[in-house]
Design goal:
The complex is a heterodimer of chains A (197) and B (594).
Chain A: E1 2-5, H1 16-23, E2 28-29, E3 36-39, E4 47-50, H2 59-63, E5 69-71, E6 77-79, H3 89-93, E7 100-102, E8 107-109, E9 126-129, H4 134-138, H5 143-165, H6 182-196
Chain B: E1 9-14, E2 19-24, H1 26-32, H2 35-46, E3 60-63, E4 77-82, E5 89-94, H3 98-104, E6 109-113, E7 120-125, E8 128-133, H4 143-153, E9 160-164, H5 167-170, E10 178-180, E11 184-186, H6 191-197, E12 200-206, E13 210-211, H7 219-238, H8 240-247, H9 254-260, H10 276-279, H11 281-287, E14 289-293, E15 303-311, E16 319-326, H12 328-334, H13 343-356, H14 360-375, H15 394-406, H16 410-415, H17 419-426, E17 434-435, E18 438-439, H18 447-455, H19 466-474, H20 481-500, H21 513-522, H22 529-549, H23 575-591
Parallel strand pairs in B: 1-6, 7-12
Antiparallel strand pairs in B: 1-2, 3-4, 3-6, 4-5, 7-8, 9-10, 9-12, 10-11, 14-15, 15-16, 17-18
Helix pairs in contact in B: 1-2, 2-20, 2-22, 7-21, 12-14, 13-15, 14-17, 18-19, 18-23, 20-22, 20-23, 21-22
The chains are: A alpha+beta (197), B alpha+beta (594).
The complex binds iron/sulfur cluster (4 copies).
One iron/sulfur cluster binds at residues 11-17, 37, 49, 121, 123, 125-126 of chain A.
């Protein structure tokens, strides 16, 4: 499963998704968010939602000199923070700017596709979709597809309670996904849901 | 408060010396939490008694609260200053990205003192403060353009706030506003003129600080944080009130207020407007709504933006599309109050006022007074420079707004000082609709509204929502002046808590004392609901202490005759009843020791 931006035209720029991503790590503020919402040159023109789109063949991983980014099943990458040397090549390689930066650890923060943020998007901009086919889900702009995406989200929501009661996550400062980080844990659980669904 | 919470940091900026420093003020935040509570203390500390509001000694204070950046809807910044409009307590709230930006930049409050010798703007990026040259931006006619230029010159897109003034602020009009994120305003009481007097064109704030939660940030903290968060968030997205503000926004209230007979119309000669259905929330949404926006960390998104497409006068197939934010108060002040039912004229006037950076309510009331004054022959065509004010005549109003800003003659210079002043020069006080020196908001609902305007610490309808007591209580049963006064005081005191937590007042139904207390615990503040009530009362009396120090007296309050000439939904206003209620508030406030 992965996170999908369904329809940016519905985005009101509330940043709830950004706060959710940071809160997943037990933090307030926006320092460790892996999703960015910003206006397209003035809020009146609307917003773009910058988040990892789970490339099948991720350039960020290809350029990493130490193999710290592993290609994730279902697209996107996982960071092995212990290996990362903070060179920043991944950030340059991602043309959509989805590699966020943790200034404290000097390491990248990349969406793990856990889907937590989608539960806090009040207007159906974000949703969690199954499977690998990026285009069909990512560009869904008709009601049928959006609805399907939202259904997938509901499955996720039903599972939300369990995820929430999972033990508080360790390794918070190490960015989105420490080697033994709870965020990865959450993702794994979510993937299981998907498999069972 | 939590150890290491950057909330305790107060950033002091001295424009004259181009210096800044940060002080740890745990004392201030422990006692007053944040927002209005902290700002009023800083105002007592920083503003010398009797200070001229347009002099360098008047401080500008911005404060946010412990819940900002942690919980939804704690999205306001409170600004305090001495008001050039009333010569007394100046307080104004705005959202946009400002609150989250200040908090994540690592501050709980910002104090700006002194003045620039040449126009400048201040850019605060985390712990760095830059004093930038703004000579090129000074005098620019369109405040949207100013925003655009600063946006391109500064980093941190999406995580920053740009608070700026327009021409009105530069020209020191005492009801000039400060605009943030193009569509949100520190509106009332003239913060824009205070910026202008300091030759301060804008303040940019951004930051990336993470914010701690819970008992020392330990495991319990994070889980409890998410639990309390989810509860508040769920309530926010499920509540019908919130849905109402998302769907049509505050203009949803136009038709109900009109049906009730409480919508001030043509300078309150009437309280029902026959053209209401053309400018109500439903009509504007159907024909013009182009986008809805939210403040940072607000899932509701009450900001409604109209798209107005206008053909060029000379060139065929050449169009310009303006994006114009509208709200209830703007539709009242620039629509019904001016007898205007042409939605395009209304939107153009809103846009013009936005471009200049004026307070919309004050502007509308001033124009309404001018229209009636000319109708009655108090002012001549010569004085207006040939303009004939007439109800609903938007081309004339558009022209007049420009003149108010540029002040080509004494008459427009008088209008530029507000309705109270204009009426003191030209007469017509009976229909000059200001309370405590501040132009009236859009509620002719009954004595609750008027008592609220009179005794509210900043003479705003939002101080105590007296209009809501009119609609909820007075339309159903009779209430004595003392009981009305007690209700108003109770609400205003509780609102001090909300505005110290900088919770948007639209979320007041969600942040009741228990919820506020639970959220505060996550943020490291142990305050029981009863403690909060007490703190609210204290903050309220600190505000009144400032007012009294600066010469406020209940005896000076003036009630324009007009309000008792037009029937309200609860009947004709009884001025003796109103006076009795004011007297009650006066003695109660003196008792709580200000
Ligand atoms: S971070 Fe960028 S390059 Fe890497 S997988 Fe995500 S979208 Fe692709
Ligand atoms: S910053 Fe880390 S993850 Fe990114 S390319 Fe360099 S080593 Fe690899
Ligand atoms: S899916 Fe998870 S990691 Fe990705 S942006 Fe959303 S909350 Fe953050
Ligand atoms: S939560 Fe949804 S509406 Fe709000 S900013 Fe994120 S994507 Fe946009």
């Amino acid at each position: 499963m992965r996170l999908s931006v369904v329809d940016t035209e519905r985005c009101i720029g509330c940043q709830s998704c950004m706060f959710a991503c940071a809160r997943r790590l037990g933090e307030g503020g926006l320092a460790s968010t892996c999703i960015g919402v910003r206006s397209i040159g003035g809020m009146e023109r609307g917003f773009k939602v910058v988040v990892c789109r789970a490339c099948d063949d991720p350039p960020c991983a290809s350029v990493c000199p130490v193999g710290a980014l592993q290609v994730r099943k279902g697209g996107g990458v996982r960071l092995d923070a212990a290996k990362c040397i903070g060179c920043g090549h991944c950030r340059d390689a991602c043309v959509i700017g989805a590699v966020f930066w943790d200034d404290e650890t000097n390491k990248p923060m990349i969406c793990t596709h856990c889907g937590y943020c989608a539960r806090f998007c009040p207007h159906g901009v974000l949703s969690v979709v199954k499977g690998k086919n990026v285009e069909s889900a990512g560009l869904a702009d008709n009601a049928g597809k959006a609805e399907k995406a939202r259904k997938a989200e509901r499955v996720e929501e039903a599972e939300g309670a369990e995820k929430d009661s999972s033990p508080p996550q360790a390794g918070m400062a190490a960015g989105a996904e420490g080697p033994d980080g709870g965020a990865a844990d959450a993702t794994r659980k979510a993937e299981e849901v998907e498999a069972n669904a | 408060m939590l150890k290491g919470d950057p909330l305790a940091n107060v950033l002091y900026i001295d424009l004259s010396k181009k210096r800044y420093r940060v002080e740890q003020r745990e004392d201030l935040f422990e006692k007053n939490m944040g927002g209005a509570g902290v700002a009023v203390e800083l105002l007592h500390e920083e503003c010398p008694k009797g200070a001229d509001p347009l002099s360098p000694e008047n401080p500008i204070i911005f404060a946010v609260g412990p819940l900002t950046g942690l919980f939804p809807l704690a999205s306001k910044t409170v600004a305090m200053f001495k008001s050039p409009h009333t010569g007394n307590l100046g307080e104004s709230h705005a959202g946009g990205r400002s609150a989250v930006a200040i908090r994540t930049a690592g501050y709980g409050a910002i104090v700006i003192r002194g003045a620039n010798d040449i126009p400048g703007y201040v850019a605060i990026h985390g712990s760095e403060v830059h004093f930038r040259d703004a000579r090129t931006l000074w005098g620019m006619r369109n405040s949207f353009t100013v925003g655009r230029i600063i946006r391109e010159n500064e980093p941190a897109a999406g995580l920053r706030s740009i608070m700026r003034i327009g021409r009105a602020g530069e020209k020191l009009i005492p009801y000039a506003c400060v605009t943030t994120e193009s569509y949100r305003h520190f509106g009332r009481l003239g913060l824009g003129a205070v910026f202008g007097s300091k030759k301060l064109k804008a303040v940019v704030v951004s930051g990336k600080h993470s914010l701690p939660v819970g008992e020392g940030g330990g495991g319990f903290g994070a889980a409890e944080y998410r639990r309390v968060y989810d509860q508040i968030y769920q309530e926010a997205v499920a509540s019908p009130v919130m849905k109402k503000y998302h769907d049509l926004g505050t203009p949803e209230n136009i038709l109900p207020l009109n049906a009730l007979g409480g919508l001030p119309t043509r300078n309150l000669k009437d309280a029902r407007f026959e053209g209401a259905d053309r400018i109500c929330g439903e009509a504007l949404a159907e024909h013009y709504l182009g986008r809805r926006l939210a403040c940072s960390h607000c899932p509701v998104g009450c900001i409604h933006i109209a798209a107005l497409r206008e053909p060029d006068e000379n060139e065929p197939y050449f169009y310009k599309t303006s994006m114009i934010s509208y709200d209830y108060e703007l539709i009242y002040a620039l629509g019904s109050m001016l007898g205007g039912s042409d939605p395009e004229g209304l939107l153009k006037l809103i846009d013009r006022i936005e471009v200049y950076g004026l307070d919309a309510m004050s502007s509308g009331v001033v124009l309404a007074w001018a229209t009636e004054a000319q109708e009655r022959g108090l002012i001549s065509d010569e004085q207006t420079g040939g303009l004939r004010f007439a109800w609903g005549d938007y081309p004339v109003y558009l022209e007049a707004v420009g003149r108010i800003v540029e002040q080509p003659n004494e008459f427009y210079a008088a209008l530029a000082r507000g309705v109270e002043h204009a009426a003191s020069v030209y007469g017509g006080k009976d229909f000059a609709l200001a309370f405590g020196g501040n132009e009236m908001p859009g509620y002719h609902t009954g004595p609750g509204a008027y008592l609220g305007f009179l005794v509210g610490a900043r003479h705003s309808h939002l101080d105590n929502a007296g209009y809501s007591i009119d609609q909820k209580v007075l339309t159903k049963r009779q209430v004595g002046p003392d009981e009305l006064a007690r209700e108003i005081l109770k609400e205003e005191r509780w609102r001090q808590v909300l505005s110290s937590l900088v919770v948007c007042f639209f979320a007041r139904g969600i942040y009741h004392p228990e919820t506020a207390s639970a959220a505060l615990r996550v943020a490291g503040f142990d305050r029981a609901p009863e403690d909060l009530q007490r703190i609210g009362t204290e903050i309220h009396s600190r505000k009144y202490a400032f007012k009294v120090r600066e010469g406020f007296s209940f005896d000076d309050l003036r009630v324009p005759v007009r309000v008792s000439e037009t029937p309200s939904p609860v009947g004709m206003l009884d001025s003796q009843y109103l006076q009795a209620a004011v007297d009650y508030v006066c003695s109660d406030i003196s008792r709580t020791g200000c």
